[in-house]
Design brief:
The chain is of the alpha+beta class. The chain has two domains: 41 residues, no CATH class; 158 residues, no CATH class. It is built from five helices and nine strands, in the order βαββββαβββαααβ. A five-stranded mixed sheet has the order 2-3-8-7-6. It has a two-stranded antiparallel sheet with strand order 1-9. The longest helix is centred in the first third of the chain and has 23 residues. The N terminus is likely disordered.
């Protein structure tokens, strides 16, 4: 199949090796492999934009989502971190205290986290990333402790301790940017950040519908074949 010249979309061979997609499980369902490849291509474009986007000195770049498994391509990008509203509910934490401390799960940890406060930072991915949670909204009118909370993933390639002052500064900036959408406008209204919400709306406005996408594809046809009944 081919796309007409000038169209705003392209085609990629899902079986073509790209250094990442082929790492998925052998015999993976084709649609799942296609989604994996699309995500890989998107990550590459995101990294390219991160390196070329003009920024004033001191400005931070916020990625919508986690930092992923491989931070190597981002080594030349200054001052960035990932922000996600969807995160694993499985982590457990050992807090200091008498008799060896106390082990709590994420629900317990966030249920007592006050508005505009953050959790302690903890290391993930072999210490190459530092993560913490920030409560953007009070728990009133929210369904569970995990609502109104975002997770920050901060690159830490050296493995050294990240200054608490920097973590507090990033957390405070996020709380200040929380006001964005009214209840019911978006399912994630409770954890939206204003700038990311606007970026999402701009991207979605540029999407084409499934009907337009199908209309732009020229399917091969067979000619010279007669059907005899």
């Amino acid at each position: 199949m081919s796309a007409r010249p000038g169209d705003r979309f392209g085609f990629h061979d899902t079986m073509e090796e790209d250094g990442e997609t082929e790492k998925s499980s052998p015999g993976k369902e084709p649609r799942s492999r296609a989604a994996h490849k699309a995500h890989h291509i998107m990550a590459g474009e995101e990294e390219k934009l991160g390196r070329t986007l003009p920024r004033k000195k001191g400005q931070w770049l916020v990625l919508d989502g986690n930092l992923g498994k491989d931070l190597h391509p981002w080594r030349s990008v200054p001052q960035f971190f990932g922000l996600t509203t969807s995160f694993s509910r499985r982590p457990v934490f050992k807090l200091p205290g008498p008799r060896g401390g106390q082990v709590v799960n994420l629900y317990e940890l966030l249920s007592t986290l006050p508005f505009s406060a953050r959790t302690c930072a903890f290391s993930v991915r072999a210490g190459k990333v530092v993560a913490w949670h920030v409560r953007l909204r009070e728990q009133r009118h929210l369904d569970c402790p995990l609502m109104g909370v975002v997770k920050v993933e901060f690159p830490n390639p050296t493995g050294e301790a990240v200054p608490s002052q920097l973590i507090d500064e990033v957390s405070s900036a996020l709380v200040a940017k929380r006001q964005v959408t009214p209840h019911g406008k978006d399912a994630r209204w409770h954890a939206h950040i204003y700038a990311i919400y606007l970026a999402e709306q701009a991207v979605k406005a540029g999407f084409v519908s499934t009907e337009v996408l199908k209309a732009g594809i020229k399917w091969p046809t067979q000619t010279g074949i007669a059907l005899i009944t």
